[in-house]
Design brief:
This protein is an alpha/beta fold. 26% of the residues lie in helices and 29% in strands. It is built from 6 helices and 10 strands. The strands form 2 sheets. The protein has a 5-stranded mixed beta sheet with strand order 3-2-1-4-5. Strands 8-7-6-9-10 form a 5-stranded mixed beta sheet. Strand 1 and strand 2 form a beta hairpin. It starts with a strand and ends in an 8-residue tail after the last helix.
Length: 207
Amino acid sequence: MAKTIPMIITNNSILIKDKESEEFKTFTMPALIDTPNIPFYHQFAERIAECQYYFKEFMKNIYGKKLSKYIFAIIVPDDTSKLESIFINEFFVNSDTCKAVAQMPMALALQKNENKYVSISKSSRNVILEYVRNHESVVTKYYDMTTADPNVIMADAAKLHIDLEYESVPVFINNFNMNMDEYLTFGNVITPKQFLDKIAEIDVEKL
């Protein structure tokens, strides 16, 4: 059975679980430009061979040269598009660092025990409101990060789906990127440590 390496694409870097320490190490590419509303990894496409080379060297330092036996279990931002997901898969598979790639949005990784909950997160471009039921996304709504009103989002959360109008469903604030200050009083806050603990062991079959 292929071994799994948990990874997280944050708003500005890639975190990879270390083989020895069980902690997460950060991979960043030098000379990337912080561009508003555009995920940092879009710039990988302009320097694809260089980025894949540096990523492979980074992975070899952590896991050794025999990388093809691993599956990357990648947690991605909640507003990752289908086209971006394809690019992410192709980038890692073609970097010759893994056997395969599986992806899961952050919202689906927030809770393993709750069957129904609302997730609020913030990417590098959007605030994302999402209703999760039975570990699947039911409804997702996006708000521009620069104009989003927390009070409007919380009002929308109560009517995002008919379930929410008739049931008491917990709200989880994903503060993994430490950018949710104006939302911290609106629900159960998931800290960076709590999130890392939740995804340290990932069942690829559920991705």
